[in-house]
Design a protein that fits this description.
Elements lengths: L11 E5 L13 E5 L4 E3 L17 H18 L7 E8 L2 H5 L2 H11 L4 E6 L9 E8 L1
Parallel strand pairs: 4-5
Antiparallel strand pairs: 1-2, 3-6, 4-6
Length: 139
């Protein structure tokens, strides 16, 4: 009797970058995912405390808490931040966000994330919030 072994499907990600200018900005033009075992669609995460209170802090402080909240949601679902393939950023002030954008790029680099990204400036977010991150993660 033949010894049969099954090969488990393994998720594969392929980055599509026809140019190089986006490399300095910590994102990619597109990400193709094949053989994903699951996809997690995260609601926009913001700087809201565990008891539901929106932050009144400055942009950098809100961005740090927003990243922590996003990471907590991803981990609670059994996924990893390194597998974020799409990250949408909403902010009430692009100019203010860019003063602390290195906080976001450092977080992306620390996790080895290669994600497609869209940044939108919006008129307002919930109450006193200044930044919101919406992610799609694969496994």
């Amino acid at each position: 009797m033949a010894n049969l072994t099954s090969k488990a499907k393994q998720m594969e990600k392929r980055v599509i970058n026809p140019w190089q200018w986006q490399d300095e900005r910590s994102y990619v033009q597109a990400v193709e995912v094949t053989q994903a075992a699951g996809t997690l669609y995260c609601s926009g995460q913001t700087a809201i405390s565990a008891d539901g209170q929106p932050s009144t802090a400055d942009m950098k402080t809100q961005l740090i808490l927003t990243l922590q909240n996003l990471e907590q949601v991803i981990s609670a679902a059994g996924y990893e931040p390194k597998n974020i393939v799409r990250l949408n950023i909403y902010t009430t002030s692009s100019a203010e966000l860019f003063t602390c954008f290195d906080t976001l790029t450092a977080w992306v680099a620390r996790h080895g994330i290669k994600q497609a990204t869209t940044l939108l400036e919006v008129k307002s977010l919930f109450e006193t919030l200044k930044v919101e991150l919406e992610a799609t993660v694969v496994r």
